[in-house]
């Protein structure tokens, strides 16, 4: 039953209809009003420009099926063509072609079937252009309204900034139709470029980029070089830079006295009296704002060669203090010490005075020997003293710098002293027991044969003697015969032993 009903309903649904191809028609182009489901046994087609097929003044044309002829009506414009399937083509569409079109289908039975069709006409959009209500807005002061022209109906407007859609900002506001963009309190970053894009169903277009000329600044100027130091006789050259649109005008002054109105201040052959605070004022004649920066210029004389005075140039290792003083008559300088051509590495045995002028080494070690120089410098000049050669006499068999602290050295010395005292006591005790207390006994551990003299003066006079002596006196009670080294027997016997400082 259902399929029977469906088969019955089919012919009923096959009604004539008009399709507009395309449905959105661009001005100047063609449109085809295509007729679907044309019934058989036709006599003629009548096309009307309007919704009323009874008004003869609206008739465009009539097409006779039998004669295959077209007769035009009052509404014929010369741009219409009908085909034998009933379809109507209209060329070179204008805005005046807008409206409803009616087709009257006349059958051979003179029955009449009427269908209507419609299409929308859109203009081809011209290239839009952007206008601004303020050609020279001032930063943080003005708002600017940009408008996309011309205004056309059924057109969508969109704004682009720097090639991208507008950022979220409370300072940006669009009109209801999006045709006008208002930028509140412009900043220098709002300059764009801006573009306006337009489109409708048949076309799209985009404006040329539009850049805002926003006046801003000047910002606080920067003076270069940042630390201006000059040698007497040089040419002072200071450059002032301030972000500003239009470019700032610059004015230089020193202590309120006008100098130049150039971006770069140039003063040749300066001397000490040109020391001072230089002011750069940057002025923007569009914003009416100005800003200043002050820079202190230091003019220095070239430095004379310093000299080193030392309280001693030949010292014995472990003695001190050795004082080296850098002598100079220049002021406003810093002093550095150089040892064997390299910057002096301070150790805990060394001390510098506050101004680095005096170097104290205490005690002196063998590695301190060598050539010393002091260098005086100011920001524009430096000079080095002649070499001061320090000779350190030491015992080459004695260990060099152990790197131990004074406390550790003291501990070791005390420990060795105690150990030697113990051994010495033991040896003496055994010896006395064995020999029945022989006479004067000496023990030398000095490594150098030439150092075997026991005279303290002789030892210190020797260049390579670096040992120090500690003597332990043991007073024996036995009145024994002394050795040949001892000219006369004495009640007191002395044993010498040597302690090396490490
Ligand atoms: C067709 O042509 C005949 C004679 O040529 C004419 O009488 C008749 O009116 C025409 N029909 C139409 C619909 O124009
Ligand atoms: C279309 O119409 C315009 C004016 O309405 C005319 O200037 C133009 O020549 C026409 N184009 C064609 C192809 O007919
Ligand atoms: C469109 O219609 C108006 C009035 O109806 C007429 O003045 C104008 O000339 C027409 N334009 C064209 C291109 O036909
Ligand atoms: C205006 O633009 C916004 C996005 O920028 C869009 O959401 C809105 O629909 C547009 N309005 C009109 C009228 O085009
Ligand atoms: C613009 O700046 C003024 C003062 O600087 C301020 O009162 C105002 O709220 C600002 N407007 C916007 C939209 O930010
Ligand atoms: C320069 O300015 C500094 C700091 O403002 C001030 O201490 C100094 O006295 C000034 N020098 C001159 C020569 O005015
Ligand atoms: C403002 O300054 C600019 C750049 O320094 C200059 O070109 C312009 O002539 C000045 N305008 C006026 C009115 O002084
Ligand atoms: C700089 O601006 C201040 C106010 O901001 C004004 O008093 C002064 O006269 C201006 N100076 C110059 C040289 O324009
Ligand atoms: C220099 O040092 C040596 C050994 O350290 C010492 O004998 C001499 O007296 C010192 N000379 C001066 C001038 O200090
Ligand atoms: C060496 O310098 C120290 C400290 O700087 C000082 O106390 C000492 O008197 C100076 N000795 C000599 C001999 O100049
Ligand atoms: C410092 O000046 C005095 C006297 O003017 C001079 O004798 C001495 O050599 C100068 N010293 C140096 C290091 O230039
Ligand atoms: C002292 O010398 C050290 C490097 O040895 C240097 O860093 C410092 O600036 C100098 N101080 C003075 C006042 O010259």
UniProtKB/TrEMBL annotation:
Q: Which domain of life is it from?
A: Eukaryota
- For the Ig-like domain, which residue ranges apply? 126-213, 218-298, 306-391
Q: Where would one find the signal peptide in this protein?
A: 1-16
InterPro entries in UniProt: CEA_cell_adhesion (IPR050831), Ig-like_dom (IPR007110), Ig-like_dom_sf (IPR036179), Ig-like_fold (IPR013783), Ig_sub (IPR003599), Ig_sub2 (IPR003598), Ig_V-set (IPR013106)
Which UniProt key words apply to this protein? Answer: Glycoprotein, Immunoglobulin domain, Membrane, Signal, Transmembrane, Transmembrane helix
Record-annotated membrane-spanning stretches: 408-432
Q: Where is the composition biased (Low complexity)?
A: 482-494
User: One GO biological process from the UniProt record?
Assistant: signal transduction
Q: Name one Pfam family in it.
A: Ig_2
Show the ranges annotated as biased composition (Polar residues): 471-481
This entry carries the following GO cellular component terms, namely: cell surface; plasma membrane
Disordered: annotated segments? 439-458, 471-502
- Kindly list the GO molecular function terms attached to this UniProt entry: protein tyrosine kinase binding
- What PROSITE patterns does the entry give? IG_LIKE (PS50835)
Record family assignment: Belongs to the immunoglobulin superfamily. CEA family.
The name of this protein is Carcinoembryonic antigen-related cell adhesion molecule 1-like
Which species is this UniProt entry from? Orycteropus afer afer
